[in-house]
Amino acid sequence: MNVADFGDRYRERIWETHIAEDFERDVVAGFAAARKAIPSKYLYDALGSALFEAIVLLPEYELPRRESALLERYVGEIVERAQGRLRLLELGSGSSQKTRTLIEAAIERYGAVEYTALDISLDAVRNAAVQLLDHYPNVTVRALVGDYFQVLGEVAPQPATLALFLGSNLGNYPGERGVEFLRAVRGALAPADMLLLGVDLRKDRALMERAYNDAIGVTAAFSKNVLARVNRDLGAKIDIGNFKHSSVFDERTGSVESYLVAIRAASYSLGGARKAVQFAVGERIHIESSHKFTHDELQRLADACGFVERGFFTDEESAFALVLLERGENATKKS
């Protein structure tokens, strides 16, 4: 079974991307920087995505289970507050598994739902669409395939929308990048449309770091896989065994910062005529920021981006939250 079997219940639009060229440019520039870095979006090739699916099952990584429990507990209130909203717009939809709770509640409340999935992976969107369309006769699916900023900048607002950005993915956009992202989302929404965020909250340092340093090393494999991608896609000759995974909470940034750390000094070819990259003992490659929010911080961010908080739902330990925002009428404030 494929999406073509569902006729006009499925539509898709694909934006042109230049992933190979962007990857080469960003890796070369990141290795040439004073503080070496690889953008976190490159962690999610086919193997990286599969490893992340394993990470969400780890006992140390509680975020998905806390988010699912909150959705189950508050889904009725969330759907009720988003009165008359029959379109769900999910950013970074992936497999769409966690969205089913909202889809089912919306069908029960409104009878039918249009589910719009925005993701960089065409295969992921199509596979998820087949499952949703087969399981829910009252659902139509629209797929938007491309980079977030690329797609959001071109999608016209469609009233009666509840947008979703779950999994604490907002934490991968710290500081001004988060402001830029939420303003792009606001631009794709009509006044009074809603945005539901799933966010990891600031808590005990040991608990935050434990989530990114699991005992059996799945997160380490996920991190190191980006070097395997560099070797494969660029023809580089990096010794992956010379790097160890490290994730630490940085009080200054408010984020868990993840790195690959060189064990020994080394020089590696990046393939072709590219300049070799040098590593000193202990030198780090930054691969991901996972910001941990406070409620006050989220309120300031929402205000700066033209949203008004309409609901803040958290668990008993105040470890994770769902935040329901409404797109305001007024222009965004300059930060």
From TrEMBL:
The keyword Nuclease does not apply. One of its GO terms (molecular function) is methyltransferase activity. Keywords: Methyltransferase, Transferase. InterPro entries: EgtD, EgtD_Methyltrsf_superfamily, MeTrfase_dom, MeTrfase_EgtD-like, SAM-dependent_MTases_sf. One of its GO terms (biological process) is methylation. Residues 23-326 form the Histidine-specific methyltransferase SAM-dependent domain. The keyword Protein biosynthesis does not apply. This is Putative S-adenosyl-L-methionine-dependent methyltransferase. The lineage of its organism: unclassified sequences, metagenomes, ecological metagenomes.
